[in-house]
TrEMBL record:
Pseudouridine synthase I TruA alpha/beta domain boundaries: 162-299
Subunit annotation: Homodimer.
Superkingdom in the source lineage: Bacteria
GO biological process: tRNA pseudouridine synthesis
Gene name for this UniProt entry: truA
InterPro entries: PsdUridine_synth_cat_dom_sf, PsdUridine_synth_TruA, PsdUridine_synth_TruA_a/b_dom, PsdUridine_synth_TruA_C, TruA/RsuA/RluB/E/F_N
EC number per UniProt: 5.4.99.12
Keywords for the protein's UniProt record, in alphabetical order: Isomerase, tRNA processing
Pfam (any one): PseudoU_synth_1
Protein name: tRNA pseudouridine synthase A
Matching HAMAP family: TruA
Enzyme class: isomerase
Binding site for substrate: 128
Region forming the signal peptide: none
Length: 318
């Protein structure tokens, strides 16, 4: 049996989350369907189930710019990916999957996983970013699928004071629901809000336009040509890094921080939610479209198996 690592990205807007569900379009279900077609394996084959194990399940409407999953497959089945291609089986599978999958899924890479690798349990940390366009910035309609627009001006100083309370090992029961037999105790390593600076894609001085090179003045950024801005200029971004996340945890923390940022709630309220991990209506999740899984980090190959073994234990607070 060979274990493959699959690095991928997807636009979550057209999916009902990651996990396979009957008669519903999901990321896992779509990729597994493609695997069955490429490898000519009947569905529900007990000898070759072709089931993906993912680093972090994303909810309906949540995106991933870099997700990781693994697949266990027999050598004869993997060799079927080659067909008439003059390429190694793993490379052939990568190319065939990319061609067959819809455009809202991209395969970055398929590779043979090192010994001890588990996409879920070997991971050291996950990084999520939530993007918001508030009243202070212009809303670019091209970003409507991955940015939440709110008609308020956010107080980032207050939101960062709230976010700082999440750092370290805590029970996030006020902001998440555990899986059966699981826990909402997680270790947050980084959590911060920042506004993306407004900056051009090209240097302001000496801009080349349709009319030629624009004039500029010493010490003055003014030009006679149009300067293309960075697409994300002015957006408010929440970046959070943790060893793992419980269900709805990131979106619920974002919603609570936003409530503080618009003055609907104060910092004492947020501190109370952190101190008493009890889920109730005021700490539910915000809309999903602003959230993207950006990165999954793993330890050196020699530590993959021990990391997976350690993380399987149910965590408790000291």
């Amino acid at each position: 049996m060979t274990r493959l690592r699959i690095d991928l990205a997807y636009d979550g807007g057209g999916f009902y989350g990651w996990a396979t569900q009957p008669d519903i379009r999901t990321v896992q279900g779509t990729i597994e369907d493609a695997l069955h077609k490429v490898l000519r394996v009947p569905e529900h084959d007990p000898d070759e189930p072709l089931r993906l194990v993912v680093a972090g399940r994303t909810d309906t409407g949540v995106h991933a710019s870099h997700q990781v999953c693994h697949l266990d497959i027999t050598e004869p089945t993997l060799e079927r990916a080659v067909g008439h291609m003059k390429a190694p089986a793993v490379t052939a599978l990568e190319h065939r999957l990319q061609r067959l999958l819809p455009t809202d899924i991209t395969i970055h890479r398929v590779s043979v996983a090192p010994d001890g690798f588990d996409a879920r349990f070997s991971a050291l940390e996950r990084t999520y970013v939530y993007r918001i366009a508030d009243r202070t910035g212009e809303v670019d309609p091209r970003l409507r699928g991955c940015v939440l627009h709110i008609d308020d001006t956010l107080d980032l100083e207050a939101m960062n004071r709230a976010a700082a309370m999440t750092l370290g090992l805590h029970d996030f029961g006020s902001f998440a629901t555990p899986n059966p037999g699981g826990t909402t105790i997680r270790e947050v390593k980084r959590a911060s809000w920042a506004r993306v600076p407004s900056r051009p894609l090209v240097p302001v001085h000496g801009v080349v336009t349709a009319q030629g090179t624009a004039d500029s003045h010493d010490g003055d950024d003014a030009t006679t040509g149009y300067v293309t801005p960075t697409l994300e200029s002015g957006l408010v971004c929440f970046t959070i890094v943790a060893d793992a996340f419980a269900r709805n945890m990131v979106r619920s923390l974002v919603n609570a921080c936003v409530a503080v940022g618009i003055g609907k709630r104060d910092l004492d309220w947020f501190a109370g939610k952190m101190a008493v991990p009890k889920r109730e209506g005021s700490t539910g999740p915000i809309a999903p479209q602003g959230l993207t899984l950006e990165h999954v980090a793993y330890p050196p190959d020699s530590e993959l198996a021990s990391r997976a073994e350690a993380i399987r234990a149910v965590r408790t607070l000291p």
